Give the backbone structure.
Amino acid sequence: NAGVMQNPRHLVRRRGQEARLRCSPMKGHSHVYWYRQLPEEGLKFMVYLQKENIIDESGMPKERFSAEFPKEGPSILRIQQVVRGDSAAYFCASSGRTSTGELFFGEGSRLTVL
Amino acid sequence: TQLLEQSPQFLSIQEGENLTVYCNSSSVFSSLQWYRQEPGEGPVLLVTVVTGGEVKKLKRLTFQFGDARKDSSLHITAAQPGDTGLYLCAGRDSGGYNKLIFGAGTRLAVHP
C-alpha cells in the first residue's frame, strides 16, 4: 500500500494518560501535516513537519501536544495528559514537492478519551 | 486570517436531482482543492483548480474557480446515492507551502 498509513485507527485513553499517533507518509513524500477533525466539522490544521524539522506549529495547542518527524521512522503526534476535549479524529497528510497544494490523507486515528 | 465558508451546510436530495455547493472567501488563494470524505475515512482529493475562471469536469461533477480566485463551486448533475458524503473545499495558505485551510464542509445525502 503506497498511501498514507496511520495507526492506530482507534485509540481509547482515560483522562490523564498519553496518546501517541503514528503516520507514515506516501512513498517519496517528505512533508507531513497533521489535522484534527471534530464531529460535524471541517479539518483544523495543527502542524507541518519536514524530516527532523517543525516548519509550522501554529495550530498546535501550547501545552500537552507535540509532534516529531524523525530522520527514520514515522511522524508521531503525542498528546500528554489527555482530556475529554481531545477526543477527535486526527488525520495525517503528506505531500511531495508540488506547487498546487495537494495533500494526500490517511484514514485517520480516532481518539476517544473516557 | 484566511477563512473559507461553505454552503449549504446540509443538503438532502433525491436521486437524479442536480445540486450546487459553494465555497466562498474574502481572501485570494493560489489554488483550491475539493475533497470528499465518507464516514470513518480520510478526505479523498477530487480536483485542484489553480487558474481564475477555470472549469474542470470529473464525470458528473463540475468544478469552477472564481475569476478572482476567492470562491469556487461544485455542481453535481443527476446525483446518485454513491455521491453521498461530506464535501470539503480547501485553499492553499498564503504562507508559501502546502498548508491547507479547510471549509466546514457540505454534508450531502442522496436518497434512492
About this structure: The mean pLDDT of chain B is 92. The radius of gyration of chain B is 13 Å. Chain B touches chain A at residues 6, 30-31, 33, 35, 40-45, 48, 50, 88, 90-92, 95, 97-105, 107 (CB under 8 Å).
